[in-house]
């Protein structure tokens, strides 16, 4: 480990800054000691400390301003102290107490969510290694977008700090972040803290080069090395980095070598895997005695330093005792903050205005986004091939880039993780992103960000950081799309708590739901069936509807009766209801033609939140129900809903609720005969209707 100090470390820093840093170093050191001395209590919940990293973290935090944004990682305890957070506040989080200011006891130590006057903004931070790089880069992307479109603040420009361990840079998603940072010249600093350890693996086991050398391939990413054991060198190097970014000269990677003086975490203790020689080598780099000597060389009185040290120890000790006595969370609050309320709670506007023309679904989506872009200057739209002259492989964004400019509608690299995860950062800075995954079959690289970052943010930040994110995903089979352009993914999405899933089946709902999804302050995945886009698939003519007016909006979580049964048939017990969505609506309509007046069809429109009240009420009214899906049936959403209805409606059923879907195969074969054999169709659904009606 390098402990060499640059000549720049001799440049003058205000004495009050030096003394504050010295006190906070001892505060962090004492906190780590307290946790070790009381490990039976402190280690009840896993935590890490910043021992050995104090210098670079304090040098960074003490130069940030309230206009800035930060994305620290789980070892950045000294960083938080440097921002001005108190040891007591951090210890409330350590012990998962009710008044933990970040999460109300929901998430780990050093996982801040901070929206406080006079402090930089820190959106929710997950534990997933390196995953903060994309949301942080999204923050920088959002800031640059707002500045370019007159939506930013006047005067000094904010910076984004993204803190990473060197080992995390081997993650592919970090490379996606670097790529976008240099491609768009974003105002972000990647602070790489390199202590040469992962958990039990050393740097030479994990990487061919350190982050500084790795980043050389990203042209336009300014690189700086700092001695992370030396506060003064760290301070000046970070000062240089911040000035570069604040002056909008492009992104910076600052690589700082640090010793690891504590445990990896309280659950993986250093004595389990580190040798005495390794521990001794790291002790040589301890920034505290080095900084102590530096201050003495400046002729600062040792008695003053000892006084600061004693003050730090006293504050930490008192904070621990106080935190021990703090109140635990109320278990009755466990369900709070999955979502924040949406402003859209009722249908508004005109679904079929006078003089309206019929429109296909893909054009309804285009017109909805166009309306949104006109009304909300903070809205932007990006994804693969949606910008430029193409406007999406389905022409779902045709001419939008030409109309609104490349700064608001633009292409991204082939980076599904960035497309999804960047929306978390965009939302944190007040931009309103609409993004697109080109095909549902290719959403999987973005699932990590969707699960770890977007879905958990509102809940784990105690409601402070909901993520406004509209993610459009073309889905479903449409005649020969084959195994990689025909898939259905809704059941996988519906296992993720904290996101909403929308699935319209016609043009009017496409437009109304799209606007509601955009205005929803929570993450929404918007599934758009490719086979319904142009109503070219036989039997889907009704997906083309009269175009609603510009004010039309449909609240999420409200099903629609797509076809009614005759009341006499219901009363005589000769009816049933089909609960479905997407293409299933048209299979059901076609299949039910030979059972006139006997089949009601519910179009769910939104899969989460589910309109359970309507579904339950209509299933009980008919006594017979079929849940219809395009997905393979086994372990699907449809099968889950089938079981739920059988459980809750049992006493009013005349037959078991049944579910019907595609065959349980891993993919749809390319030949259309394979597709036909695997998927439901009107003929197959008709047979299921007959079984239920004759039960």
Automatic annotation (TrEMBL):
Superkingdom, natural source: Bacteria
Enzyme class, broadest EC rank: oxidoreductase
UniProt keyword annotation of RNA-binding present: no
Secretion signal, residue range per the UniProt entry: none
Cofactors demanded by this protein: thiamine diphosphate
Classification via Pfam families: E1_dh, Transket_pyr, Transketolase_C
Transmembrane segments: none
CDD domains given in the database record: TPP_E1_PDC_ADC_BCADC, TPP_PYR_E1-PDHc-beta_like
Domain Transketolase-like pyrimidine-binding: 359-535
InterPro entries documented for this protein: DH_E1, THDP-binding, Transketo_C/PFOR_II, Transketolase-like_Pyr-bd, Transketolase_C
Keywords: Oxidoreductase, Thiamine pyrophosphate
Coiled coil regions in record: none
E.C. numbers: 1.2.4.4
Function of the protein: E1 component of the 2-oxoglutarate dehydrogenase (OGDH) complex which catalyzes the decarboxylation of 2-oxoglutarate, the first step in the conversion of 2-oxoglutarate to succinyl-CoA and CO(2).
PANTHER family in UniProt: 2-OXOISOVALERATE DEHYDROGENASE SUBUNIT BETA, MITOCHONDRIAL, 2-OXOISOVALERATE DEHYDROGENASE SUBUNIT BETA-RELATED
Protein name: 3-methyl-2-oxobutanoate dehydrogenase (2-methylpropanoyl-transferring)
Native species: Marivirga lumbricoides
Gene name of the record: pdhA/B
């Amino acid at each position: 480990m390098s402990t060499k100090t640059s000549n720049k470390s001799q440049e003058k820093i205000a004495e009050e800054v030096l003394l504050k840093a010295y006190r906070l170093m001892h505060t962090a050191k004492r906190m780590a000691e307290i946790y070790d001395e009381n490990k039976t209590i402190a280690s009840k919940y896993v935590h890490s400390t910043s021992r050995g990293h104090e210098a670079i973290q304090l040098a960074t935090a003490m130069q940030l301003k309230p206009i800035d944004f930060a994305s620290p990682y789980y070892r950045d305890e000294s960083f938080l102290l440097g921002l001005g957070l108190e040891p007591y506040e951090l210890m409330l989080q350590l012990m998962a107490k009710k008044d933990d200011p970040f999460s109300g006891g929901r998430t780990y130590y050093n996982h801040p969510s901070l929206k406080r006057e006079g402090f930089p903004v820190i959106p929710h931070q997950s534990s997933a290694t390196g995953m903060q790089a994309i949301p942080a880069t999204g923050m920088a992307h959002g800031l640059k977008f707002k500045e370019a479109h007159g939506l930013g603040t006047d005067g000094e420009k904010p910076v984004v700090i993204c803190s990473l361990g060197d080992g995390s840079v081997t993650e592919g998603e970090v490379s996606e972040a670097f790529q976008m940072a240099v491609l768009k010249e974003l105002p972000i600093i990647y602070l790489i803290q390199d202590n040469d350890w992962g958990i039990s693996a050393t740097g030479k086991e994990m990487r061919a080069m350190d982050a500084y050398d790795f980043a050389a391939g990203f042209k336009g990413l300014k690189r700086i090395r700092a001695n992370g054991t030396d506060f003064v060198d760290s301070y000046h190097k970070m000062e240089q980095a911040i000035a570069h970014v604040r002056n909008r000269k492009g992104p910076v990677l600052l690589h700082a070598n640090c010793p690891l003086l504590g445990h990896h975490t309280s659950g993986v203790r250093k004595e389990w895997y580190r040798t005495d020689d390794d521990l001794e080598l790291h002790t040589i780099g301890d920034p505290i005695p080095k900084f102590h000597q530096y201050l003495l060389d400046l002729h600062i009185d040792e008695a003053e330093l000892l006084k600061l040290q004693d003050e730090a120890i006293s504050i930490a000790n008192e904070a621990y005792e106080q935190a021990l006595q703090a109140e635990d969370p109320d278990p009755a609050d466990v369900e709070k903050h999955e979502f924040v309320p949406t402003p859209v709670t009722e249908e508004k506007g005109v679904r079929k205005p006078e003089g309206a023309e019929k429109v296909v679904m893909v054009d309804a989506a285009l017109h909805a986004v166009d309306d949104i872009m006109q009304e909300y200057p903070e809205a932007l739209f990006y994804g693969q091939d949606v910008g430029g002259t193409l406007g999406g492989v389905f022409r779902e964004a045709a001419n939008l880039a030409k109309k609104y400019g490349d700064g608001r509608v633009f292409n991204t690299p082939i980076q599904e993780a960035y497309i999804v995860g960047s929306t978390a950062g965009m939302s944190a800075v007040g931009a309103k992103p609409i993004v697109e995954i080109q095909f549902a079959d290719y959403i999987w690289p973005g699932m990590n960000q969707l699960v770890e970052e977007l879905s958990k943010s509102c809940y784990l930040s105690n409601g402070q950081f909901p993520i406004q994110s509209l993610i459009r995903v073309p889905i479903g089979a449409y005649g020969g799309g084959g195994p990689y352009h025909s898939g259905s993914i809704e059941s996988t999405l519906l296992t993720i708590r904290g996101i909403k899933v929308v699935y319209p089946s016609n043009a009017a709902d496409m437009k109304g739901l799209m606007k509601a999804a955009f205005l929803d302050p929570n993450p929404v995945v918007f599934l758009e069936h490719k086979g319904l886009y142009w109503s070219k698939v036989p039997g889907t003519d009704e997906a083309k509807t009269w175009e609603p007016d510009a004010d039309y909006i449909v609240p999420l979580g409200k099903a629609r009766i797509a076809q009614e049964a005759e009341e006499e048939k219901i009363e005589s017990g000769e009816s049933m209801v089909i609960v479905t969505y997407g293409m299933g609506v048209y299979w059901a309509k076609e299949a039910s033609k030979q059972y006139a007046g006997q089949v009601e069809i519910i179009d769910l429109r939104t899969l989460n939140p589910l309109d359970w009240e309507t579904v339950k009420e209509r299933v009980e009214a008919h006594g017979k129900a079929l849940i219809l899906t395009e997905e393979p049936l086994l372990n699907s959403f449809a099968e889950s809903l089938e079981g739920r209805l059988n459980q809750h409606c049992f006493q009013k059923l005349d037959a078991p609720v049944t579910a019907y879907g595609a065959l349980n195969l891993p993919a749809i074969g390319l030949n259309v005969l394979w597709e036909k054999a695997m998927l439901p169709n009107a003929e197959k659904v008709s047979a299921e209707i007959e079984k239920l009606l004759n039960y």
